[in-house]
Amino acid sequence: YLMWRLWPRQKTLVDGRVHLFDLEFLKQYEKAIDDPLTTDFLDRWKIEYVLLGKPVGTDNSRALESFKASGAWNRIYEDDISVLFEKRTDQRVGRF
Q1: What residues contact 39, with CB distance under 8 A and at least 6 apart?
Q2: Are 81 and 64 in contact (CB under 8 A)?
């Protein structure tokens, strides 16, 4: 939905069409989402927002915990099924 609704003003990096990406890119992406503090992937691609779904039947995934613990990302929205993070800058200080 976001790809069609927000494009071209906002662009997505990865979506459900994983067959469009090579395996090395997807491995780097997975590592960046699992532990955003140990990779430069999100910075390299100039990612400003990350929208993560909450896994059904669990409190939070490792990715959610990593982003919540990171000082580089602000949680700007959360509901029962998703969490939206925004990359922190000097102009954007924690709003949530």
Answers
A1: 28, 31, 32
A2: no
- What whole-number distance in Å separates Cα of residue 91 and Cα of residue 69? 20
pTM: 0.73
Q: How buried is 32 (Cβ within 10 angstroms: 0-12 exposed, 13-18 middle, 19+ buried)? A: buried
Q: What is the 3-state secondary structure (H, E, C) of 40-95?
A: CHHHHCCCCEEEEECCCCCCCCHHHHHHHHCCCEEEEEECCCEEEEEECECCECCC
pLDDT tens digits, 12-67: 877 767 678 888 988 888 888 777 777 788 888 888 898 888 776 555 577 788 88
